[in-house]
Amino acid sequence: MRNIRNFCIIAHIDHGKSTLADRMLELTGVIHTTSNEQVLDSMDLERERGITIKAKAVRMPYKARDGQEYILNLIDTPGHVDFNYEVSRSLKACEGAILLVDASQGVEAQTIANAYLAVDAGLEIIPVINKIDLPGAMIDECRFQLEEMLGIPGEDALLVSGKEGTGVPDLLEAVISRIPSPPDRSDEPLACLIFDSYYDSYQGVVPHIRLFSGSVRAGDRIMLKSNKKTFDVNDVGYFTPQMTRAEVLKSGDVGYLQATIKEVGTVRVGDTIISAAHPETAAVPGFRHSQPMVFCGIYPVNTNDYGKLTIALEKFQLNDSSIVYEKETSAALGHGYRLGFLGMLHMEIALERLKREFGQELIATMPSVVYKVVNTKGEALMIDNPSKFPDPVYIDHIEEPIIRARIIVPTDYVGPCMELSESKRGKLVSMEHPDGRRAMLTYDFPLAEIITGYYDKLKSVSRGYASMDYELAGYRTGNLVKVDVLVKGNQVDALSYISDRDNAVSKARILVHKLRKVIPRQQFEIPIQAAIGGKVIAREDIVPIRKDVLAKCYGGDITRKRKLLEKQKEGKKKMKMVGAVEVPQEAFLLLLKMEDET
Q1: 7 vs 72: CA distance, rounded Å
Q2: How far apart are CA 313 and CA 304, in angstroms?
């Protein structure tokens, strides 16, 4: 037990976590040649985008300079704020964390957020300045920022190059000397935390576990603490990084177990596995559930695939426990689900994974946030879908979720960043200067403004130098209205959205104008309207196609042509009464792109 070390690597996005993990794997002999291909980022999407999406656990045997053999359990974590929940889960399975800072960029917003998470979890932090081989490395500035912004002594920071391997042996020695070994509770009853899981078509649900006490081996009978269901263990093992069978997992180990758990909904991340012989064993404390920030509706393109989508979501939630979902029905799109995500990138990645890994053909509606609607009776309703909003007559006021964002930006770009933030209804809380070259702006934003492209625009106005991190700060009353879209007098519920009253008309005009180009023309006129309550605030008409009924009339009396045209006119009146308009899929994506034009 004294020779086990459980630790994770935390950092801002693109600070070199996965590359450093590769060097550690190479140095400990787990892998032999990587050519910087980031072995732990095994998902296609991770390789394509160059980001870590899933936290990965790996076991490394290491012979230290003191001659002793150690087992290092490393968890490589994502850096983007939208995958913050992956980081918090990983921290629960560790005793220490390597806090990585890019020598060319310094301490950034997510570095601060992750450091706070590690401190709250009571972990030992090893500060590391990475990428020291780069010509623009600012080692002294990074040490100063660690002290000023995080209160970590700058001289404690180790200098490392994950790409070239410089300083990595010293870092492994620091892991052994600075990070405590897990407490020895091997003689107590089994208690292990499920920090991840996935579905295998042969083995069923395979939980990834960290043992806090006791031991588990094939043949043991286990119980899930939350639902009291029992199973027989078929197999246990650890990650090297492939799954490797072991005879037994003991207190302090990180690994997996297989127990033929066929029901997908049985296992929940954050649950505790205990021994069936000791049902009184307490659950592992301190695990928090994720709080979704952004919601959107998803519907199968083919309505017959609804059952397949249900199964796909159950299996997907095992692997990504931060999504939540519930059933939803739309008059325009049929049966589907309302999904909750941690942010826009999380939503984008999750929908892409559902399409690639589970073969789902999906239509996604406009992302929205949860509003608190207080009605005239004083009741507060939490509503995540604009189509569920009560009639404006019964609404007293609407409160919208507010986030507190920390933006770190070079002083040259403070002006454009503040201008952009003001345009997104941001309120400046504070402005600090951690060093001579950068400013840290703290803003309160309505969450709805952030999810529609703010981060991309922030990167654009700061030439890519700004970094941002945010957390939910509560609710605030806003001057908000629900905008309905009507196509030929019929409300299309999936196109409804909530807007700030000041911008409602300009947004509605842009949307109606775009819908006119997307909805195909019919042989009758189609009015497209945007309305707040009963008041129409924007309208455009799709002109009808005219069938050439005179094509067969070459020559002859004019009265014959007139008779045919009158007949067509009567037919159009009738068609206008019974004609149904199909709204194509592209129309539902217009709301996503609408923000770029306002």
Answers
A1: 8
A2: 16
CB-CB neighbours of 235 under 10 Å: 16
314 with 210, same domain: the answer is: no
Q: What is the pLDDT of residue 478?
A: 80
Given a contact cutoff of 8 angstroms between Cβ atoms, the answer to whether 192 and 185 are in contact is no
Q: Give the β-pairing of 254-258 and 204-213.
A: antiparallel
Percent of the chain at pLDDT exceeding 90: 0
Q: Is residue 460 part of a domain?
A: yes
Which domain, by its residues, includes 70?
4-178
DSSP H/E element including 145: helix 139-150
- Residue 587 falls inside a structural domain: yes
> What pTM does this model have?
0.69
How many angstroms separate the Cα of 245 from the Cα of each of 192, 274, 361? 18, 21, 37
Identify whether 402 is part of a domain: yes
Burial class (CB in 10 A: 0-12, 13-18, 19+), 176: middle
Confidence category of residue 298, pLDDT binned at 50, 70, 90: confident
* 253 within 8 A of 182, measured Cβ to Cβ: no
Per-residue pLDDT tens over the stretch 383-410 = 877 777 787 778 888 888 888 888 888 8
Measure Cα distances from 288 to 153, 212, 321 in Å.
30, 17, 12
What kind and span of H or E run contains 86? helix 84-92
Give yes or no for residue 86 having a pLDDT over 70: no
List beta partners, residue 244. 238
Per-residue confidence band for 578, with pLDDT thresholds at 50, 70 and 90: very low
